[in-house]
Predict the 3D structure of the following.
Amino acid sequence: KKGIPVMGELELAYRILHTPIVAITGTNGKSTVTSLVGTMMQLAGLKVFVGGNIGTPLIEYALEGEGCEYAVVEVSSFQLDTSHLFSPAVAVLLNISPDHLDRYDSYQAYKASKCRIFQNQGPGQVVILNDGDRALAQLEPGGGASVLRYGLSEGSGRCAYIKDGMIQATFPGKDLFRFHLSESILPGKHNYENIMAAVLVGMALDIPTERMGETLRTFRGLPHRLEFVGRINNVSFVDDSKATNEDAAVKAISSFDHPVVLIAGGRHKGGSYASLLEAAQGRVRQAVFLGEAQGLLAGSFEGKIPFSLADNLSDAVAQAYKAAHEEDVVLLAPACSSFDMFSDYAQRGKIFQETVERLRHG
């Protein structure tokens, strides 16, 4: 009311910094891609700050006096809500699916928030978009930034795609980049999309193709993101505690060829669980629900897929293991935030892993 500008930490840091910024956002995958791009640039010999919404805040790097050639930052919609002039050298928008509807008035408001990442970009800057994402395929950023699109199949206007079992990427004035999917450790089609986004960042920044390939062959992903925990009597346990929304849980379920016993639930974030049920049909043998959202999840699965209710995570792991058959996957993919029972998704994942270890040792 007094005319005093209100800005968030991201915006303040941007106004202070001289370091070129690579900013990565999306409903899912942004932490993986941020880490993947940062690793790729470091292997190429560049001095890089990696942080933002993952790890160290950008303002901390700014206050320490900079000193890096690039800043690779994960950016959340909440941070973008309080930005005004923010304009990264490279902006990456991975996907947009319903999330945080407990905070935003509508899905369209959430989508508009994500799109703020490129609203101030212009000539000489780059925006990278997932052309296979329904919300992004028809998006036409203005301002004159170069637009690079990618998707799971070859298509008009796509700079990166999958063909002949390889990720293939093109960039004006550069040789075609090829990477065999069989060489990647990361599971699932959603990770193929994440890899393509990272490759296009690398090409935009002239990262040598040898370093990009080396990174893609060795990058193991992030803790609590489809992290293999162990096997007990031929039952696999996988920690995807970072699947804090429905779309992430859907992608996690779809990553496995074997039947899944799903552990889900936590604090509800708005929206329905219709797509989770759809993904679960034919894939999920049984579900175990816990936390504040267990009643909503149970209502969605009622009469369609068997489920049980658990009092806590340890109880859920025990029930899931009991329900699992040989070669099944017990998957923690909550589709909810963790704040009803845990301090964050990492604590939830840690307790899941500790519970599995106790179960393993009897």
Q: What stands out?
A: The mean pLDDT is 95.
